[in-house]
Amino acid sequence: MQKARLEGRYIGKAPIGYRNKVTADGHKYIAPHESEAIIIREIFETIVSEKNLPLSSIYRQAVLKGLKCSLNTFYEMVRNPVYCGRIRILNKDTAESQTIRGNHDDVIPFLLFEQVQLKLKGPKQLSPIIKKSINENLILRGIFQCPSCGKNTYG
């Protein structure tokens, strides 16, 4: 398997946006599944173009367009070099990884993938904190405590 990886072949189940295929002589490879590949291209382009949009919002937009995966899988997907035609190989002895050119078609250009990685490594976008509106008529709110449980009383 390590030899196949070093040759640039993807081993295992194809990631979202790709399908496992077999050539006439029995060699396995992955090929882009165009309807999913379009959504994935849009995801990467949106990450780069939208400066303040959190990944969770981009994920929700992609799900509405037809992407079928969990949020955790989505986070892994935007960091996966397979989409730009590369394969990550882990050296088991040193626990270091290297990325080599795969022999499968890419879904996005390498430059776009690099831009997304730089943005993901940059400062995190925090969601705005929304404060609850306080009813001015309840001026003693939160001051009195329940004698039996000790929690603040409201209302």
TrEMBL record:
InterPro entries: DNA_bind_recomb_sf, DNA_bind_recombinase_dom
Source organism, top-level taxon: Bacteria
An example Gene Ontology molecular-function term: DNA strand exchange activity
Domain Recombinase: 15-126
Protein name (Swiss-Prot/TrEMBL): Recombinase family protein
